[in-house]
Automatic annotation (TrEMBL):
Annotated source species: Chryseosolibacter indicus
Domain of life: Bacteria
Domain HTH araC/xylS-type: 164-262
Keyword Transcription regulation: yes
SUPFAM superfamilies linked to this entry: Homeodomain-like (SSF46689), Regulatory protein AraC (SSF51215)
Keywords assigned by UniProt, alphabetized: DNA-binding, Transcription, Transcription regulation
InterPro entries found in the cross-reference section: AraC_XylS_family_regulators, ExsA-like_N, Homeodomain-like_sf, HTH-like, HTH_AraC
PANTHER family: HTH-TYPE TRANSCRIPTIONAL ACTIVATOR RHAS-RELATED (PTHR46796), TRANSCRIPTIONAL REGULATORY PROTEIN (PTHR46796:SF2)
Protein name (database record): AraC family transcriptional regulator
Length: 267
């Protein structure tokens, strides 16, 4: 279903570009596709999909353009808005054991009509007329809760993450390029408690462990999986290729490119 005259638009507060979802958001893909990984599960998103990205999860996205375009509708369902909504519409939060970071919504006529209804309010340049922003967000929430009532247990859960096993979490999340403060928050700890518990679990400070873990993973990907250094460094949590190459050579005595060449020769 194509929405005439809308390429991309956004309602509500902007979403942080880092690999952490600070607030729930609804997304509908218009054009292009996307894959995502949360440390546990891979997700494939295609045009026509409706879903909610869940807050307090680590996510890495890969976007694929169609005809050099990637178009989507994003509506942020931030905590302040959700609390105000719950005051006006006293939904009781249901319980759920769903742990997915992407919650796919079943297509129905309400979602189709809603997306089409955004067109008259579209101002261009990604903007929906601010006068109607919260009204349209409230309408979307009513549709979501009518279509998928169980989501109340997720959308109206305003608690912070509970304290979890730091070792298991870090071993599946080390590839994500986020701050120690984020890792601490996601494991249910203050930064000081996180650092203390980390040393007890791994024997070394988190910064040292993260660097070595990421470099070891990069070495494996390059030497055993034939991955290119230019593709690997972002995947294992480095921001800069030159910094990655410097740290790699310091750790292994060879540059990533040298290891890649040796690996091809040995095969």
């Amino acid at each position: 279903m194509k929405v005439n005259n809308i390429q991309s638009c956004h309602l509500g507060p902007e979403i942080s570009p880092e690999q952490f979802i600070p607030e729930h958001f609804f997304m509908y893909l218009l054009k292009g596709s996307m894959t995502a990984y949360d440390g546990n599960k891979h997700y494939s998103l295609k045009p026509g999909d409706y879903y909610i990205a869940r807050k307090n999860y680590l996510i890495r996205y890969t976007k694929y353009k169609e005809d050099d375009q990637f178009e989507k509708i994003i509506i942020t369902l931030d905590e302040a808005f959700l609390k105000e909504f719950q005051e006006r519409h006293p939904y009781v939060a249901s319980s759920t054991d769903n742990n997915d970071s992407f919650l796919f919504l079943k297509e129905n006529r309400l979602f189709k009509s809603y997306v089409q209804s955004l067109e008259p309010y579209y101002m261009g340049d990604l903007q929906i007329d601010e006068t109607f922003s919260d009204i349209k967000r409230e309408e979307l929430m009513l549709i979501i809760l009518k279509s998928e009532p169980w989501l109340s247990g997720i959308l109206f859960n305003f608690s912070t993450p509970e304290k979890i096993d730091i070792k298991a979490f870090m071993n599946r999340s080390f590839r994500f390029n986020v701050s120690l403060e984020r890792f601490a928050f996601m494991t249910g700890r203050s930064l000081s408690s996180f650092k203390r518990d980390f040393v007890q679990a791994f024997g070394i400070p988190p910064g040292c462990w993260l660097k070595k873990k990421r470099l070891d993973e990069a070495f494996f990907q390059i030497s055993k999986q034939n991955q290119k250094p230019s593709d690997v460094y972002l995947e294992v949590g480095f921001e800069d290729l030159s910094h990655f190459s410097f740290a790699f050579k310091k750790e292994f005595g060879k540059t990533p490119s040298e290891v890649a060449v040796e690996s091809k020769v040995q095969q």
